[in-house]
């Protein structure tokens, strides 16, 4: 597992690195948050990012948001002090674990485990949400195609769906593909739906 520590204070990075090595991790890299460090992180393709930010500024939090979007990896953040705004920004940025005043090497492994588990749980929920959105969009498309068939061929809703389904089976296509083709053809022919 490749772990990147984002830190610009050598002493604090050493605490994190010692905790990781004692937990059995050895693919560890320290990146100072200066210059094009987000691009450098992308190139390194870490599995987990630990950020020791001390007292992060608003600019640092915005950069963290960029890291979270670019990497889509578990991120654990260690800070010395915090407030409600910073916590909210960290959560919005996708931070999996936010630890205030808890930088001790014996805490690094549990925080790392927590960050990974929370990231996986969030990723799973995100995938389910995306599937639900896709299913809803497909259902709307199929409903629109059924409405076109019901009006143009004077069919019941069940018969319109049955016609879409049998056409999809005969053409070895998905029902959504047939529905989209029907809607496109109807639009080209000046249909109402």
UniProtKB/TrEMBL annotation:
Domain Response regulatory: 2-116
Presence of keyword Lipid metabolism: no
PROSITE patterns (alphabetical): ANTAR, RESPONSE_REGULATORY
Pfam families on file: ANTAR (PF03861), Response_reg (PF00072)
4-aspartylphosphate modified-residue sites: 52
Keyword Membrane recorded: no
GO MF annotation: an example: RNA binding
Protein's GO biological process: phosphorelay signal transduction system
UniProt keywords, alphabetically: Phosphoprotein
ANTAR domain segment(s): 122-183
Protein name: Two-component system response regulator
Species for this entry: Rhizorhabdus dicambivorans
